[in-house]
Design goal:
By secondary structure, the chain is mainly alpha-helical. The protein contains 22 helices and three strands. Strand 2 and strand 3 form a beta hairpin. The structure holds cobalt (II) ion.
Length: about 500
Amino acid sequence: MTVNSWEAKLKEFKEYVKRITHYNEAIGLMYWDLRTGAPKKGMAQRSEVIGTLSGEVFKMTTSEQMEEYIQYLSQPEVEEKLDDISRTMIKECRKEYERSKKIPQEKYQEYIILTSNSENAWEEAKEQSNFDLFRPYLEKVIAFNQEFSEIWGYEGNRYNALLEYYEPGMTVEKLDVIFSQLKDNIVPLLKEIMDSPNRPETGFLQQPFDIEKQKKMIRLVLESIGFDFSGGRIDQSVHPFCTSLNYGDVRVTTKFYENDLTMGLFSSIHEGGHALYEQSISRDLVGTLLGTGTSMGIHESQSRFWENVVGRSLPFWKFFYPNLVQLFPTPFNEVNVEEFYRAINEVKPSMIRIEADELTYNLHIIMRYELEKALLNNEIQVKDLPVLWNDKMREYLGIVPENDSEGVLQDVHWSAGLIGYFPSYTLGNIYAAQFLQTMKKELENYEDLIASGQFNPLKIWLTQNIYRHGKMLTPSEILLQATGEEADASCFINYLNEKFRGIYQI
Ligand code: CO
């Protein structure tokens, strides 16, 4: 091996990876366009184009060429010469390669078709509130995921094979401890809250709010917390989302409700949190496949940090309330900022996960985790899901859905084959509370900063500790480096107790 040959090979590899990121950017832009107003007539054709490009990406990540790069650059005498970024790129490519390559091509195709049909069946089942229409599809989706888990391999629980994909390093063994600790604290706290006579008045939040003014408020808030409009934009879509084409082009969408100010506002801050992360990733990671958030859980920790920890806090509204009053004198002239703060933090068990408050949301996630883990391990059967679902709702939230449409059929995830994804949402809340604890120690005047609209020190802290690293660090490395701790529910439990005991005076 000559001195130059490994360098030439590395250069070639990087060009190859860059080409993959370019395809991904094109696919991302097409998805964004589909969901933000592409003409209906062109949609079927567009989906086909996305399919073709995705197929190319799949081929490139599983090609013999890729295998050759990985093998060559992983030789000890080559690897020791590589810089950190190249080494992590190879690790990432190897992971994707092995994961995809292990599944036979025909099996993969079969699964893609199944999930596509399954989503359609789910939509109809949900509309008719008829679980039996969806049941055979879900049975197959579970069977496929069981088979995939065996092919990919795992230690301990079979569910670990799926968890590893969304939250590398997280396991059932850890999650069982974290989630049961959380559940054991939230369920009794919820009961105390429901028994409290000091309930916030929320009626004033339901009335017409001019959409143009809502847009103004959202723009002001996002700009203030550090969303860079020269490197991003906001549009409207049916379901709010954030997509990052590259660090300089990060797009969020929002949905407005004429009679509800808070839905559009807080979902925009949520997506804005995802966007701040993507916009602040190190420039060195462009075109490497590492220039994106490190995991679902860490990503969600950022959207939830900005939406809930900051966005639903009293100091935040002490700063923004005058703007809100100015835009909407009715009703806010008649309401003070403390009353507003209490109203936007109302705890109210609901059937629907995406409508849940900051506290009960986690119970929705924990029950989904328990159910999908049990399904994967054959401890329960798909046919029994509706009954088991309702039992858990009764036990954790004290309410029972009247039909499967607002029960077991409410989420798209299982129909799309997303098994192992739900825990990320609550892990996000848990991480966010851990980051908050450290941030408060390191930024002594944390609350004053927020109350005076100085969000930049927060963004700098998050960029230093989380954002800039992209995928260079694993979720647990980020958490450990930033906070000195592993994932642990205690911070979040303390945070919830402090916040909601204050609001409900218990
Ligand atoms: Co999110």
